[in-house]
Design a protein that fits this description.
Layout (H helix, E strand, L loop, with lengths): L8 E5 L2 E5 L4 E3 H5 L3 H13 L2 E5 L6 H18 L3 H4 L4 E3 L2 E4 L15 E7 H4 L13 H28 L21 E7 L11 E4 L5 E5 L5 E4 L7 E2 L6 E6 L1 H6 L8 E4 L8 E8 L6 E3 L5 E3 H13 L2 H6 L15 H6 L8 E2 L5
Parallel strand pairs: 1-18, 3-4
Antiparallel strand pairs: 1-2, 4-13, 5-6, 6-7, 7-8, 8-15, 9-14, 10-13, 10-15, 11-12, 11-14, 16-17
Helix pairs in contact: 2-6, 3-6
Length: about 350
């Protein structure tokens, strides 16, 4: 699909008409069968926009959807607990533990983020007695997390395998061979709760960025994700699609592809400021020792890229400005200034407006 040639739908948000960007839908069933047309389709998505829907409604994907609903119930229990219980261990490592609201920079100038998050790494969940807050460290909860992580691992590895086949990669050059299950990595299941806000709030949303991961598999039934596809002049919403996860290319896969694949810039904003918003994101990351050329032209490990970019996320704006200019956006280019982006967007009369139930 070509975003630039399609007239996008719009929704009213923050006092203006905002695009709702279309995305291709990829069939998980057809990827499992390595159907040539679907392989060509997914490679095109990754090379042009870097985002797509993954349809999980077939027999092989349905259990993933059911497991994510169980994970959502677990999240409601966890995030509804007292702060002392949630923050029992704090942030153990960058990819394990609890982050309270306001740990990172927010969407708008002089704001902090508007979400809290519990992260469970794939390496940690496989240990005897994983390091988790006691309120979710029981047999049913551990089983739910294990299933959710296993599901996401299967889905994202299937995507990597499909991309490798589509590119004609063999042996060690195949993408999945730098994402082996028995090698250390920062692969993580992140469960996020965006708190209700009001117009005066200084803790809002999630700043614009690209993901550190190779692939991100996102589950959310609520509006709030905004993307700025390559060549687009403003952020627009992604419409939640029933029975589908949203997948995006991250920095590591872009680097591994020789910078041919696109890691789309995105952020999260409160579409309905009065609601509690929940999302589940699985960040599949390359083995820590995997080598690639990053956005600065450095030949570094995946582990080093993860640690440097994670720290940049937590910097105050003044320090973020001193970080390499391509760090938070993974080397992806964008238009300068939100005002310019809005000014050059198609006029609302050229768009089809849709209504949604918030």
């Amino acid at each position: 699909m070509a975003i630039s040639t399609e007239v996008p739908e719009t929704v009213q948000w923050n006092g203006k008409s905002v695009p709702v960007y279309p995305m291709e839908t990829i069939s998980f069933e057809r990827l499992l069968s390595q159907e040539p047309a679907e392989l060509e389709k997914i490679l095109s998505c990754c090379n042009t926009e870097g985002f797509f829907y993954l349809d999980l409604q077939g027999i092989d994907g349905r259990r993933m959807l059911e497991d994510q609903k169980k994970t959502l119930e677990l999240m409601h229990h966890f995030f509804g607990s007292p702060i002392e219980a949630k923050n029992q261990y704090g942030l153990v490592t960058p990819h394990l533990g609890y982050e309270p609201v306001g740990s990172r920079t927010g969407v708008f100038e002089n704001t902090k983020d508007g979400y809290e998050m519990i992260k469970v790494s794939r390496d940690e969940i496989q240990r005897d007695g994983p390091h988790l807050p006691s309120i979710i460290k029981n047999s049913p909860s551990i089983a739910i997390l294990e299933n959710a992580i296993a599901d996401c691992n299967i889905a994202t590895k299937t995507i990597l395998s499909a991309l490798s086949t589509a590119l004609g990669l063999t042996g060690a050059a195949r993408f999945e061979n730098s994402h082996r299950n028995d090698k250390p990595s920062t692969t993580t299941l992140s469960m996020m709760h965006y708190i209700p806000t009001d117009p005066s709030d200084k803790q809002i949303g999630h700043q614009k960025h690209t993901d550190i991961s190779s692939l991100t598999l996102l589950f959310s039934e609520q509006w709030g994700l905004q993307i700025r596809p390559p060549g687009a002049r403003e952020f627009g919403f992604v419409k939640p699609k029933e029975g589908c996860a949203i997948v995006n290319v991250g920095d590591s896969l872009r680097f591994a592809s020789g910078h041919k694949m696109q890691s789309c810039i995105h952020r999260v904003v409160p579409f309905d400021p009065t609601e509690h918003r929940y999302s589940i994101a699985y960040f599949l990351r390359a083995e820590d020792e995997t080598m690639f050329t990053d956005s600065e032209g450095r030949y570094i490990t995946a582990g080093q890229w993860h640690d440097e970019k994670f720290l940049a996320f937590t910097y105050i704006p003044e320090l973020q400005a001193q970080a390499p200019p391509t760090m938070l956006l993974g080397g992806m280019k964008e238009y300068d200034g939100e005002e310019e982006a809005v000014a050059q967007a198609p006029a609302p009369s050229a768009m089809k407006e849709i209504s949604i139930e918030a």
